[in-house]
Amino acid sequence: MKHCQPGILAQVPRLARYLSFTLKPDIDSDTIRRLVREKLNHEECVVGFGLELVLALGKDIDGLKPFPVLCGPGFTVPATPSALWIWLQGDDRGELLQRCRGLTQELSEAFVLQKVIDSFQYQDSRDLTGYEDGTENPEGEEAIKAGLVQGAGPGMDGSSFVAVQQWIHDLDHFQSLPQTDRDNIIGRRISDNEELDEAPPSAHVKRTAQEDFEPEAFILRRSMPWADEHQAGLVFVAFGCSLDAFEALLTRMTGKDDGICDALFRFSHPVSGSYYWCPPVKDGELDLSLLGLS
């Protein structure tokens, strides 16, 4: 789709760096407007605006809202909002580092770098558990339908809403389990990626079967593994024409509708959760008209 940021529909890059920024206190809106207009572009990255930033500009984006805080037995799904999210994409870690440094300096008058997560492709886009990630991802026109706003008018068409979470896996615990248990947690056989009809109702695949919702809850996943010297997991990234499908999936995972929690929580938990609006592109630049920055 010609009006969307290209990085949304592109294949997941070999390497990436996720940046989140907060606003400096008492910063004036004119400074924010100038920096956003002059310093942000969509080349080799995806840019998302949090509710904090939209409100600071005195605007409203229909459909953008706070990330929900949800709890279940032994776990919490937290909300960690930020003003600005940038997903840098590439294949050279040093080059991503330099781009991050440059953006941080250019935006420093109004924005404070809150968090940086380095991520990477693992094998053929697998999660670090070894299971394929995003098997049921929509493709082609279905990806556009699920992931991008359409029919809402100029400034909105081609935009997308994105949910971002950082999950930490206890890989030692997961790998200590018998293979049958691991397959039942995911709901697929690792050997051939086939869905298990006999998997328990808590299996992740069964909890998040997008076609089983009313309306159907299809999202466009662009998740990537991450790791540091102490921990590892998944940066879950889900683009949508709205945030409704993601919230339906997350609510089902936490057992709010039937009391059955997703088995993923046996070995993994999220430590962050944020929503952003990713503006469309017009004439080769971000279309910021709905934010009064055109």
Q: How does this model look, in words?
A:
With 294 residues, the protein is α+β, with helices and mostly antiparallel strands. It has one domain: Alpha-Beta Plaits, CATH 3.30.70. It contains nine helices and 14 strands. The strands form four sheets. Strands 7, 8, 9, 10, 11 and 12 form a six-stranded antiparallel β-sheet that branches. A hairpin with a 2-residue loop joins β13 and β14. The two termini are 21 Å apart. Pfam families: Dyp_perox_C. Keywords: Iron, Metal-binding, Oxidoreductase, Peroxidase. One of its GO terms (cellular component) is cytosol. This is Peroxidase.
Give a concise summary.
This protein is α+β, with helices and mostly antiparallel strands. 24% of the residues lie in helices and 25% in strands.
Uncertain stretches of 5 or more adjacent residues: none
Helical coverage, percent range: 10-25%
Beta content comes to 25-35%
The class by helix and strand makeup works out as alpha+beta
Largest sheet: 6 strands, antiparallel
CATH architecture call: 2-Layer Sandwich
- Could you give the distance between the termini? 21 Å
β-strand number: 14
Overall mean pLDDT: 94
CATH topology: Alpha-Beta Plaits
- Kindly give the count of domains: 1
Instruction: Determine the oligomeric state from the structure.
Output: single chain
Shape estimate: globular
Work out the helix count.
9
Q: How would you spell out the order of helices and strands?
A: HEHEHEEEHEHEHHHEEEHEEEE
CATH hierarchy, class: Alpha Beta
Based on CA atoms alone, the radius of gyration comes out at 19 Å
Organism: Candidatus Thiodiazotropha endoloripes
Domain Dyp-type peroxidase C-terminal: 124-281
Protein name: Peroxidase
Pfam family, one: Dyp_perox_C
